Amino acid sequence: MNAAIPQSGSKRRARTADQSLNRFAGFGTITVLLFAFLYLPIVILVVFSFNASNTISVWEGFTFKWYWIAAQNTDLHKAALNTLLIGGVATVVSVLLAIPAALVLSGRAETGSGGKYLLILSLPLMLPEIMIAIATLILFTTIGLNLGIGNVMIAHTVFCLPFALMPILARLRGMDHRLSEAAYDLYASRWQCFRLVVLPLLAPGIVTGAMLAFIVSFDNFIITLMVSGAGGTTLPLYIYGLVKTQMTPELNAISTGVLLLSLALLSTAFVLTKGRILGVSGMSE
Amino acid sequence: MRISKILTALAAGTMLTATTMAAQAEGKLNIYNWAGYTPPELVEKFEKETGIDVTIDTYDSNETLLAKLKAGGGGYDIIVTAHTFIEVNAKEGLIQKFNPKDLPNYKYLDKKFVDPSWDPESQYSLPYQWGTTSFAVDTAVYDKPIDSFETLFNPPAELAGKVGMLKGGSDLIAMAELYLGVPLCSEDPAEMQKVLDLLLAQKQSVKVYAGAAALRDQMVSGEIAMTSNYSGQVQRARAEKKTVQYVYPKEGVIAWVDALAIPADAKNLENARKFADFLLAPENAGALSNHAGYANGSAGSEEFMKPELIEAPELHVPEGIKTEPMKTCSPAANELEAQIMTQLMQ
C-alpha cells in the first residue's frame, strides 16, 4: 500500500511538470510565429496567383487569367506529365525493391549482419545530392546510356530507394513476428503468409514509404538537372527556368497547383492509413 | 526467395515499360532552349507543316547547357545559346557544321549576321534573337537627362540605395569595362583592379544583385529605380510601367545574340536543319520576336511583328551609339572575372 503512494506522487509530479511545460511563457507566441513564418509565404504565393498584374509583386486586382495561361501552356503540361511519370515509376519500382530488401534486412538484423547492408542502402540519405548526381551522370556517360526520360527514372529510383525502405523496415521491425509463425503453424505457404499476414501489416509503412519516395522524386532538382536528356524536363526544372527568365504570376499559379496536388496526396495517404502516416493514432482506434 | 524474385521482376518490368517510351522515334526533333523562349504556336505550326514531333526542354544558364553538351549532349538536335558560347562549343567539337548558307531561307538573313565574328564563315550557327544590355531608370524617381554609365556607377542621391544590377559576372563586368574604356575580357590585372574598385564603390548604392526577370519585377514594383538589364526585359517593364526608360549611354551598349546551333551528336540532323530554315522565314522570325520580346535576325520580319515592338526604343539602337559585342573570354580573363565576383559578393 505504502509503495503505491510515491508512485502516484511521481505521476502527479510528472503531470504537473508536463502542464507547466505546456504553459511555458512565450511558447504560444513562438508557435504562432513559427506557423506564420512557415505558412505566410505560401498564403502570399496563393493570393498573388490571382493577381491581374504581369509582375509578381504588384497587386492590380483579381483574375483567374494566370490559371488559364498555365492551363494553355503545353511546355508546362509536358513537364508536369514527366514529373508524374518519373515520380510514379520511381515510387513503384523503389517500393517494389524496398519490400524484399526490408524483409531480408529485418531477417539479417537477428544475425547482426543487417547493419552493413542497411548502411550501404542508406548512402543516398547521407551523401550530398550533388555527389550522387555527378556520379550518376559520369556512369551514364561512360556506359553510353541515353534513354532520355528513362535516365531520370533510373536515377530517381536509386535515390528514392532508402526513403521507401526506412518506413517499411521500421514497420517490419515493430511487427509481432508471432503472427507469421502462427500462419506457418496453420500450414500457410511463404507466399500466403506474406500476402495475407505480412503485407496487410506492412501497408501503412508501404504507403508512407511510397509517399516519401514520390515527394523526393517530385521535388528533385539537382539529380534531374544533371542526368535528364531530351524530353526529360520536370516541373522543378521548368519552374526554375521560368524564375530566371519570366517571373509572372503564372509561376504562382503553377506553384499553387503543385501545392494542391501535394495536399491531395497527403490527404489520400492520411485517409488510407487512417491517420497513422502522421502518427495520429486516434483515427485508427 | 520467390517473393523477392516476383517483386524484382515486377519492378524491372515497370522500369522497362517506362524507359521504352523514351526511345528515339523517327520524325522527332529535340530542342534545348531557355525557358519561355519558344512560342508554342510556332512549334505547332512547324509540326503541322512537316509532321515532325517536337520536344522542348528548358535550361536556366549557358553554363548548364555547356555542362550538358560536355556530358554527352543529352540527345538534343538543336540548342540555343549565347553567341560567345558558339566559339567555345565549336572549338571543343560540341557542335557541328550544318552549313546554314545552303538553307533555302538563308536569303532572308540580315546582312549584319552574315559571317559574324563568333562564327566567321557562318557554318555553325544562326541568330535566334538578339538584343543589348544597358540600364534603365524610372523617370518618376529621377527625371534628369542621362547619357552615360556614370549615372549607373556613381548614382545621384535620388537613386542611391535603389539600384539593381545583373548578378551574372560577364554582364556586370562588361558594363564596367565599357564605362572605364577597358577592353572587354581584359587579361591585365591592373585594368581589372580598376573594374573591381568601381564595382566596390558602386556596391554601397546597390540594393540587389539579381537575375534579369527579378530585376524587371522589382523595377515595376518600385523596389528599385535604376537597374542594368537586357533590352527585352526593359521593354516588358515599360509595358507595365510607362515611366521606365532604357538608356543608351555615350560609352555604348553591350550587344549579344542568342544563336541556334546543332550539337555534334544530334540524331535528327535533317529535322534540325528544317527547323532552322523554318525560323529564318520572316513571318516565323516575327512571331518569335512577338513571343520573346527581342529583335530577330531576319530581314523583312517587321511586317509580322507587333506595332509596339517595332516602335520599342529598347529594340532599336540610335545612330551613333556603339554596340560592343560580348566576347568569348580567355581562361586568364575568366579567372580575373571570377576573382572580382568573389570579392564583390563577399
From TrEMBL, chain A:
It is a multi-pass membrane protein. CDD domains: TM_PBP2. One of its GO terms (cellular component) is plasma membrane. The chain crosses the membrane at residues 21-50, 84-105, 117-140, 152-172, 193-215, 221-241, 253-273. It is found in: Cell inner membrane; Cell membrane. Residues 80-272 form the ABC transmembrane type-1 domain. Pfam families: BPD_transp_1 (PF00528). Gene3D superfamilies: MetI-like. GO terms for biological process: transmembrane transport. Belongs to the binding-protein-dependent transport system permease family. CysTW subfamily. Required for the activity of the bacterial periplasmic transport system of putrescine and spermidine. PANTHER family: PUTRESCINE TRANSPORT SYSTEM PERMEASE PROTEIN POTI, SPERMIDINE_PUTRESCINE TRANSPORT SYSTEM PERMEASE PROTEIN POTC. This is Spermidine/putrescine transport system permease protein PotC. It comes from Borborobacter arsenicus.
Automatic annotation (TrEMBL), chain B:
Its main location: periplasm. Transmembrane segments: none annotated. Keywords: Periplasm, Signal, Transport. Residues 1-25 form the signal peptide. It is found in: Periplasm. Gene3D superfamilies: Periplasmic binding protein-like II. GO terms for cellular component: periplasmic space. GO terms for biological process: polyamine transport. InterPro entries: SBP, Sperm_putr-bd. GO terms for molecular function: polyamine binding. It comes from the Bacteria. Pfam families: SBP_bac_8. Belongs to the bacterial solute-binding protein PotD/PotF family. Required for the activity of the bacterial periplasmic transport system of putrescine. This is Putrescine-binding periplasmic protein. The lineage of its organism: Bacteria, Pseudomonadati, Pseudomonadota, Alphaproteobacteria, Hyphomicrobiales.
